[in-house]
Amino acid sequence: MTTPLVEMDGDEMTRILWRIIKDELLLPFIDLKTEYYDLGLKHRDETNDQVTIDSANATKKYKVAVKCATITPNAARMPEYNLHEMWKSPNGTIRSMLDGTVFRAPIVVKGIDPTVKCWKAPITVARHAYGDVYKNTEMRIPKAGTVSLVYKSADGTIEESQIVHEFKGPGVCQGQHNLDDSITSFARSCFEYAIDTKQDLWFSTKDTISKKYDHRFKDIFADLYENEYKEKFEKLGLEYFYTLIDDAVARIMKSKGGFIWALKNYDGDVMSDMISSAFGSLAMMTSVLVSPHGYYEYEAAHGTVQRHYYKHLAGEETSTNSVATIFAWTGALRKRAELDGNAELSAFADKLEKATLETIESGEMTKDLALITTIENPTVLNSKDFILAIKKNLKKMM
Ligand code: NAP
Ligand code: MG
C-alpha cells in the first residue's frame, strides 16, 4: 500500500474481533498501512473526544477510513468507564464533519436466504440523516385555538403566515424543516454511490400529498440528475428512478434486489430495519458513510456486541460473527486500491470476501448464522476459529 487507510479502533467484542482480523486475515497477506486512531471509549475519554475529531480530519485528508463499532455512552457507561462526560456518538460526530450519507447493504450468501424469496441481490438503503421529525418542534394543544406557521426573513423583507389548524378542542401539533443544502448533499452522495457501485438508484417520497416539502426533495434530486449525473448514468447503463413511496414499497417486495433505495430520514430509519431483518441478520449488514466530497468510511452496521463481550471477559467461549467487520475492511481496502490504482490490493479484497462467503457456504459459521441457515448440520465455530477457517480458505487462493 502507498497511502494509509484511516483505522478507527473501537470497543468491546468488536475490538477483540478487530485485532484477530488484522493479525490473521490482513497482516500475513498484505503490506497493510494504516493511520491508527483509538476510538475505544477509554481513549475518547482521555482525549476529551479529540481523537474522534482527529480521525474525521484524517479521513478528509486520506479519503478512506475503516471503523470498528464503538460504544455510544449512556448513563450506565458513566460509572463503567469512569467517564468525564457522556460523549456524543462518534458516528454522529464523524457524519456531521464529513457531511455524509449512510448506505447500509446486506451481505448475501448461499444458505442464508432472505425472507422475501424473490430477493436475489442486496438492497442498499440510503437514509437522509438530517431534519424532518428528528429535529422537530412539537406542541400539545390544551384547548380551542389557532396554530399558525410563521416565517420572517432575517432582513425583514418577507413575512408569511399560514394557518395550520383552527383547533376546536385539545390536540397535538408538529413543526418540521429541512435544508436545500442538506438535501442536495444527500442527493449527491446517492448519485455518486450509485456510480461507484454500478447500481440503479431509486428514490421515493410522498410528494403527491406533501406538495411543497416532499416535492422539494423530488425536485432537488431531479435537477441534480438532469444537470450533473444523467450522462454518467446513461454511459454506465444505470437508471435513476423516482416513484411514490407506496409504489416503491410494493415494487420492492416483488423485485430481485440489486439497487440502492434512497429514503427520507424517517422512511430510511424504518425501512432499513425491515430490509436488514428480512435479509437475515444484523451481523451480515455493512454500512458505508459516503460524503459528497468523496470521503468514504466503512463499518459493520451492528454495535459492539456487549453481551458477548461480557461472556468473553468471564472466560466463556463466544461465537461472534465477524463477517460485517471483515467486509468493512474489504470495502475500505478496495476503495483505497481504486484511488491508488492498486490492482493487487483490490484483488486481495475480492479474495478475502470470497473466502469468507465460501467458509459459510461450506457449512462453517458462527452461532447466529447456524440458527437461520438452510445448510444442513452446520459446524458452529467460536469467534476465533471462524476467522481461522476463513484464513485457511484464503491461503488456498493466494
Ligand atoms: P449490538 O452490539 O448490535 O448487539 C445486539 C445483539 O445483536 C447482540 O447481543 C447479538 O445478539 C446480536 N449481534 C449483533 N452483532 C452480532 C454479531 N456480530 N455476531 C453475533 N451476534 C450479533 O447492539 P447493542 O448490544 O444494543 O449495543 C452495544 C453497544 O454498541 C452500545 O454501546 C451501542 O452504543 C453500540 N453501537 C454502536 C454502533 C456503531 O458503532 N456503529 C451501532 C450500534 C450500536 P445475542 O446477544 O442474542 O447473541
Ligand atoms: Mg431504526
Account of the protein in words:
By secondary structure, the chain is α/β, with parallel strands linked by helices. It is built from 14 helices and 16 strands. The model has no long low-confidence stretch (mean pLDDT 95). The chain binds NADP nicotinamide-adenine-dinucleotide phosphate and magnesium ion. NADP nicotinamide-adenine-dinucleotide phosphate binds next to helix 10.
What proportion of the residues form beta strands (DSSP E)? Answer: 15-25%
| Helical residue percent band | 40-55%
Q: Give the overall shape, derived from the CA principal axes.
A: globular
Q: Given the helix and strand composition, which structural class is it? A: alpha/beta
- Count of DSSP-assigned helices: 14
CA(first)-CA(last) distance? 17 Å
Give the bound compounds: NADP nicotinamide-adenine-dinucleotide phosphate, magnesium ion
Elements, N to C (H/E) = EHEHHEHHEEEEEEHEHEHEHEEHHHEHEH
Which ranges are low-confidence, i.e. pLDDT below 50, for 5 or more consecutive residues?
A: none
The rounded Rg comes to 23 Å
Main beta sheet? 10 strands, mixed
